Structure formats: structure tokens, C-alpha cells
Amino acid sequence: MAAEKIHIFDTTLRDGTQGEKVAFSVEDKLRIAHRLDQAGIDYIEGGWPGSNPKDMDFFERAKSREFQHAKLVAFGSTQRCGHSAEEDENLQSLISAETPAISIFGKSWTLHVEEALKISRQENLDLISNSVAFLKEHDKEVIYDAEHFFDGYKDDSGYALQTIKAAANAGADVLVLCDTNGGTLPHEMSRIIDEVREEVDTPLGIHAHNDGDLATANTLSAIEHGCRHVQGTVNGYGERCGNANLCAVIPNLQLKMGFECIPNEQVSRLTSLSHFVSELANLAHSNRMPYVGNSAFAHKGGVHVSAVMKNATTYEHIEPEQVGNKRRVLVSDLSGKSNISYKAEELGIDLDQYRERVPEIVERLKELENKGYQFEAADASFELLINKITENWSDYFQLEGFRVIIEKNASEQTRSEATIRVNVDGQTEHSAAEGNGPVHALDQALRKALYKFYPEISKMQLTDYKVRVLNEKDGTSANVRVLIDSANEYTNWGTIGVSSNIIEASWQALSDSVCYYMAKQTDRKPGGNQQKLETAKSEVEEE
Asked: Do the domain assignments include residue 279?
């Protein structure tokens, strides 16, 4: 038997943008809309065309775009009191958007009717009825959002029911019950929806906010009690604490409750969709998001990892690949042999021939973590650590020394310069470089010194640099942890350094990054570079 369909209504581009620090350009919104369409989302609420120029521009440009599955939705309010529907600018702008579906909200709570709008209860019912009827006359699918419905119902259930009946009698296609303040508890929501279903026949939907950290739970409860239309946002973006997170709602409904939300192959792309939206929002992707976060299937405790290696279901509620995520094993001072073995296998390191060295690796790891090292985000440094302990390593260069100078002159300009001496196969190279800061200058000087030996170093670059003070009570003498992310056109990697001297910590992470990159070049082996030096020099001259 086919799974029952749940209609997914995405409001990332409207309600999501009301979240703090969330902003999209028109081009961003168009790109997200097309990605949501590809994902199989049924409705995409693009914004409020009557409220601002950006949303008006979005809908104007969207008219020339084709959407394969989703219906684009314009959002607005019921007509203003004292205006007819035909004269209301808000309703006219909704019609002008030329979307097949329109979502309008109206008041369900007497508090808002009498104190915010300052109109009578009957006038509010008329606004709802007339607005819905006007939009239906223009052949629009009308999704009616009953704002503050649950608060209104708890305050005056009879009047809250009258408001949605006014929308239903005027022809609304869906009645969406909104927990606008996000304070309703699941058991309250279940009871209220059961009572509403006894009073109306029109299909019901749910729009939950997360102020009680219950938006996902409330949404699932609403579906269990008869709602078949779900509103939410990618990553849970939205006003205050956000909206129901579709990246959690969809897999819960589809993988666990047996409903059909989007095509199965698109469920396995939810992690990619989540990252895509966070990138366009220019917000850090939350590691702790269920299903799609980097930590969702990350294992750190040695007992956990040992069990997962035998049977992943011991500590994973689904297979990470079902939502496009992946299992990760973290190495830390909590690690045991299982973590090390799993991580080595993940990194392609064969430890079978070095079994007797695994305890040494574990002890060294714990010693370093006690000093402030953390290898969860520094896989490259961890791999180098294993290779050095197992003596499966030769240095690509030896540092003879470096000096970093920071100069500030009378004109308030600051200049950073680094000089460095490195030895490669018995040959010393001395170079200097300036940079935007001391670490940048040191990076440039190292590259300059190594380039004639390893010209491929020009194909890697630093992509991120983070500093964390470890023991803040020690003030400026505190240890710091430096994390460096590096990349080439194919992959990326992370390295780490710890010291009470920020330049020394930066050097550790920087040199690890270069050494790791060189080790991954299939045509480069440490040692024997003297034989290749003439070829390398020729390559440099040709470039």
C-alpha cells in the first residue's frame, strides 16, 4: 500500500529570513527556490510581495523561471479594516505576484483582535472571509494561516474556531494552525487538533515555532492527530528561536512514521541541501543539528566506537547515508584502541602491521590532549602523528629557524615580515616575505623557500584560521590552540598547533598542513629530492 502523502510547505525564504542574522539576496532566494524544487518540496513561500521591494523583485523574476514540482507561494495578510478586498493593496500585490498558490494569515486570538487591530470580533471574521473569497475568485489555491491559533484556542476556543470556519466557508483549501509564539506543549496540541477536527472538514496544516524547543515534536504530534500539511524551514531558521526544522521533520515522517514527504532519493540529499542553504545564508552550519549536522553520527567514547565497529545500530538510530550524512569517529582523551583503529582505517592507514604501537598512539594522544590539542577538526595532524609514531615518515624539510617582525610606524601602518631558513636534502634555502599579518608572512616565506623543491605547493592554500585561548585566567600568557583549514581544488584538511606563543602554535599547524599536502602527492617522496631538483627548477622557469 502506498504511503500517505504529507504536503511540505517551505517558508525558508519568508519566515526563515525573519531569523536573526539570516538574509538572502534576490539571487540567493532564486537559487534556493530551485534547489527546494529539485528536492521535491510541494510549496515554496517566496516572501511578502506587498511588504518590501526585494520580495517584489523576487516574484517578478520568478515569473520567468520554471519549477518542475513545487508551487511558488506569495504570502500576505487579510485585507485591512475599512478597505474592500478589491481596493486592498496587499491583496492586489498577491494577485500581481502571479503565483498559483497564496498564503494569507488572519487573527485567531481575541487579544490581537481587540488590542492589536482594535476592531470588533465580527469585523475580524469579515476580514478573513472576504479576503479568502476574493483570492478564490481569482482562481488561487488559498492556504489560510490561523495566526496564534493555539494561544487563541486556549483563551477562547469558540472564537478561535469561528475564525477558521470563516476561512473554510469562504473556500480556503487548507487551514494551517499556527503555534506562533512557540509555547504550546505536544499534549496540548494533540488535544486541540482532535477537537478542531470534530468541527471542520477542511484539510488541516501545522506551523510550529521553536520557542519551547518543541517545534519538531509538535509537528510530528500534529501529523499523528490528522494534519497533512507541514510548514517549516531548512535548518529551522526563523524568528526568535526559529521554525520547525524540515531537515529533521522530513526524515522523522518519512523514515520512521511511514509517510511520503519527498522522493526517497531526495531524502538522501538532505544534508547537502542543509549545507547549501547555510552557505547562502553565510551562517556556520550547526554541527549539532539532528540528521544533517556534522556531529549527528560522530562517536567519541571508546566503548561507543567499539560497539559501532561491530554493529552500527548500537549507537545510531538510522544509517547516516539515508540522509546523505556520514559516520565520523573522533579521537580525543576519551579514545581507546577502537577509536584509533577505526580512525586509521577511515584515513586509509593500515595499522595491522603496527598493532604493538597502538597503545603508544593512545597514550601520546591523551598526553597531547591534556596540553590542549583536539584532533576532531584536525584529521591531517592526527594522521601525521600516527605516521611518525609508526616510523612511516620522513620529513620533507627541516626548519633551521625563522624570525617574524611586526613594525608599526608613525603613520599608523603595520607591516609584518618573516624570514625563514629550511633545509631540503642537505640544501639550505633562506627566504623572506611580507604579509597582512605575522602568520600570513610566515606562510608566504615558507612557500617561497619550498617552491623550487616542491612547485606543486602553489596549488594549496589556507582557507581558514582560528585561534582559541585555552586557559583564559592566565591572560596574555595563556596557551592558545590554532586550527588551520587548507585546501586544493580537490579536497580539504585540518591541522592543529598548541603553544603559549601564538606564532609557535601557528607554525605547528602551518608546517603540518604543508607536510600533509606533500605526503598526499603521489609523485613526491621525502628524500631523494636532489635528483629531482633540476626538473623542478625547469618547471619553475617554464612557469
From this structure: no
Cα 268 off chain centre by:
16
CB 13 within 8 A of CB 26: no
- Residue type at position 406: I
Average of per-residue pLDDT values in the chain: 88
Q: How many domains does the chain have?
A: 3
- Amino acid 11 reads T
Q: Which domain holds residue 490?
A: 398-542
Alpha-helix runs per DSSP H in 198-269: 215-224, 246-251, 264-267
**Region 515-522: what's the mean pLDDT?**
83
- Single-letter amino acid code for the residue at 108: S
41 vs 367 pLDDT, higher one: 41
Strand arrangement, sheet containing 492-499 = 461-469, 480-487, 492-499
User: Domain ends where: 262, 290, 314?
Assistant: 262
Spatial distance between the Cα atoms of 394 and 387, rounded to a whole number of angstroms: 9
**Position 249: which residue type?**
V
The Cα 235–Cα 15 span in angstroms is: 12
Does a structural domain hold residue 19? yes
Please state, in angstroms and rounded to a whole number, the distance separating the CA atoms of residues 362 and 122. 73
> Could you tell me if 120 and 248 lie in one domain?
yes
Query: Residue 24 burial by CB count (10 A; 0-12/13-18/19+): exposed, middle or buried?
Result: buried
DSSP letter, residue 490: S
Q: Judge residue 181's burial from the number of C-beta atoms within 10 Å of its C-beta, 0-12 exposed, 13-18 middle, 19 or more buried.
A: middle
| Whether residues 26 and 84 fall in one domain | yes
For residue 85, give the 3-state DSSP assignment.
helix
Helix, strand, coil shares of the chain as percentages rounded to 5? 45, 20, 35
Least confident stretch, 161-165, 188-192, 208-212, 411-415? 411-415
* 276 in any annotated domain: no
- Whether residue 158 is found in the same domain as residue 215: yes
The answer to whether 431 and 420 have CB atoms below 8 angstroms apart is yes
What's residue 524's pLDDT?
Answer: 52
CATH code of residue 23? 3.20.20.70
How far apart, in whole angstroms, are the C-alpha atoms of residue 395 and residue 525? 9
Mean pLDDT lowest for which of 29-43, 182-196, 353-367? 353-367
- Containing 537, the helix (H) or strand (E) segment is helix 529-542
Residues 421 and 348 placed together within one structural domain of the fold: no
Both ends of the chain: CA-CA distance in Å?
Answer: 65
Rg (the chain; Cα; Å): 30
The model's pLDDT over 375-433, given as tens digits with 9 standing for 90+, comes to 766 788 888 888 888 877 778 999 999 999 998 877 768 889 999 999 998 999 999 99
Mean predicted confidence (pLDDT) in 54-65: 94
Are residues 231 and 319 both part of a single domain?
no
The answer as to whether 42 is a domain residue is: yes
Task: For residue 483, give the CATH number of its domain.
Answer: 3.30.160.270
414 and 513 in a single domain? The answer is: yes
Answer whether residue 297 shows pLDDT above 60. yes
- Please tell me the distance from the alpha carbon of residue 9 to that of residue 13, in angstroms, as a whole number: 11
